[in-house]
Amino acid sequence: MPMRVDGDLFEAAKSVGAVASRSAAQQISHWARIGRELEASPGTSPRDVQRVLAGEAGYKYDNLGERDQAVVRASWDEQLDERRAKLNLATEFAKSGRSWSEADAQGHLVKRHHAQQDDA
Fold this sequence. Notes:
By secondary structure, the chain is mainly α. It is built from 5 helices and 2 strands; from the N terminus they run αααααββ. The longest helix is centred in the middle third of the chain and has 21 residues, at 66-86.
């Protein structure tokens, strides 16, 4: 659903989103989901959550409360989904000339072979 956002917010989302391979709209949605979780939990520490997600020394997932851990897991799930959507191992293997195995729709093993091309 279309909506208007402040120009500064849009530019920030565009900038931060580029680092995480998200469009400005995807970044704003990401921020909204995290914000929803944070507002639902009065004991949540947004700064600690961000520090865990950034991998800062001294900030560990196990030290967060249950709600903070839920926010971190939601963010990790989103990041994994985005990375999986961009992943195309068949193309990568074919480009490098590597063979690979995978399961077909019925669960049967299928071996894929690609000969490496010689540079002439």
